[in-house]
Amino acid sequence: MNPANLFADATRTATAGTDLSTEQTSDLIDQMLRGQVSDDDIGSLLLALRQKGESVSELVGAATAMRRHMTKIQHRHDILLDTCGTGGSGSGTFNISTAVAMVAAACGVPVAKHGNRKATSLTGSADVLEELGVRIESDAQSVAQRLDKTGICFCFAAKLHPAMRHVVAVRRQLGVKTLFNLLGPLCNPAGATHQLLGTSSADAQIKVAAAIAQLGTTKSFVIHASDGQDEVSLEGTTRVIEVTDAGQVEHEFSADDFGLLPVGQEALAAADPVASAAIIRRLLDGEPGPCRDTVLAGTAMALWLVGTVSDLRSGVQMAADAIDQGKAKQTLEGLRAD
């Protein structure tokens, strides 16, 4: 059967409310990434899956296909953290997880931050890092060297997932969250062992956690906040699904668990990469306030995830010290180095 007919059949199946199998989805995504499918067929299938609600089998199948096509980063680290989330929460905040990645690295945790330019958000991790002076278009060897030299690297999805060029135009044209929003965190080119993975909804959180359980990491925290953020939030509560080989455990945290004051989402707003970069520069310079506190909380969660600290309040203190002693700013400088 030719690709057009296969996609038409899959679209009809999804439109009828039936989930695709792991193997079927893997084959379909593989054909997309080989450039064998028209934009119209890709768009129709992605919208049908979105309308139905992407299933765990579809996530696992799609991630498996994407991993086959990605350019892998070789490294020597037994522990490697990624803070890449699904995006698409519509919160309009500065790039919190990118700042968390830098502060966590300053605390001695090797980090391979996976990310891309904005798709459905105001500012993507690639956009803000470029604004901060980071060379995001590095090839795989340069990325690996940066990780070994400085303890942090940026894995630019557009560079290390070259086959994604076949779906970029469709995603932009659709302008809505699709299956691919959920896939980025599941396809880290460096094979991160630990993930602090934000999701844009409670439903996505459950599905992504189940997919990670099948795809495998040492330990991951899949998070979603009650205020809708795909980050550790200091407003309301943050629900965490801990995923290991032993199964899943759920946690719930509030600002008090971090020893911090509540922070409203409006205090974290950034209209574009320029504004986001300015916030990150200020907090790395030691400026107090809600943006710093939110990054301290996210970093504390990351440090607890990898076992660097035994509790969240200790993580907040370690993160604060890394900023106040200039280590986090030095980490950014290392990331920027030629």
Beta-sheet strand percentage? Answer: 5-15%
Compute the number of structural domains: 2
Order of helices and strands: HHHHEHEHHEHHHEHEEEHHHHH
Q: Output the number of helix runs.
A: 16
Query: If you consult CATH, what is the topology of the largest domain?
Result: Pyrimidine Nucleoside Phosphorylase, Chain A, domain 2
Work out the radius of gyration: 19 Å
| CATH homologous superfamily label of the largest domain | Nucleoside phosphorylase/phosphoribosyltransferase catalytic domain
Oligomeric grouping of the chains: single chain
Description:
The protein is globular, with a radius of gyration of 19 Å. The strands form two sheets. The protein has a five-stranded mixed beta sheet, sandwiched between helices. Strands 2-3 form a two-stranded parallel ribbon. The protein has helices at 3-15, 22-33, 39-52, 56-69, 96-106, 125-131, 140-150, 157-160, 165-174, 179-183, 202-215, 255-258, 273-284, 290-306, 312-324, 327-336, and strands spanning 81-82, 111-115, 152-156, 194-198, 219-225, 238-244, 247-253. It contains 16 helices and seven strands. The chain is an alpha/beta fold. The termini are far apart.
